[in-house]
Amino acid sequence: MTTLRWIPYVWDESHPATPREFEQLEHQLGITFPEAYKEVAAQYQGMTPHSAVFNVGRGTNAVNVLLTIIEDHKWRTYSVMRAYEAVKPHVPSRVYPFASTPGGEYLCFDYRETPEQPKVILVTVEMFIYPVANSFTEFMATLHDGRFLLA
User: Fold this and answer.
1) Which of 19, 46, 66, 83 is 20 to 30 A from 101, alpha carbon to alpha carbon?
2) Torsion angle of the four alpha carbons 118, 78, 81, 114, in this order, in degrees rounded to the nearest 10
3) CATH of domain 5-142
4) pTM (2 decimals)?
5) Residue 2 pLDDT > 50
6) Which of these, 133, 55, 123, lies nearest to 91 by C-alpha position?
7) What string of DSSP letters covers 57-117?
8) Contact 120, 135 (CB under 8 A)
């Protein structure tokens, strides 16, 4: 994976997630997150990656914030669970958000075809779905500083 600089967003400093917090969330959702994602989210939940631009469709988009594993009372809207509850009625089952974009869209894991290695998709505010990467590792490797253009 590319080495990124992470900038605080939800909290003023790093707020690591514990293995127990991941287990609880995975149990609630009925999934197992990819190990590469857990390694990143454990350290950087609630933070923004510098070099956050990714390609999607004919354009680019950007990661705004890596959603939190835990639900902080003050910042609930940034949690994986709250984001999931928001998109669940509008997307196919087995799609789970893990990050948001500046435009309020969600980067999600898509477990529909490959439950052991979910693909990364973008779910727009209109609830359209666009493929982004074949895995979280591939997604992270493609983040860059390129020019930001909405897809």
Assistant:
1) 19
2) 0
3) 3.40.1580.10
4) 0.91
5) no
6) 123
7) TTEEEE--EEPBSS--GGGGGGBHHHHHHHHGGGS-TTEEEEEE-TTS-EEEEE-SS-TTS
8) yes
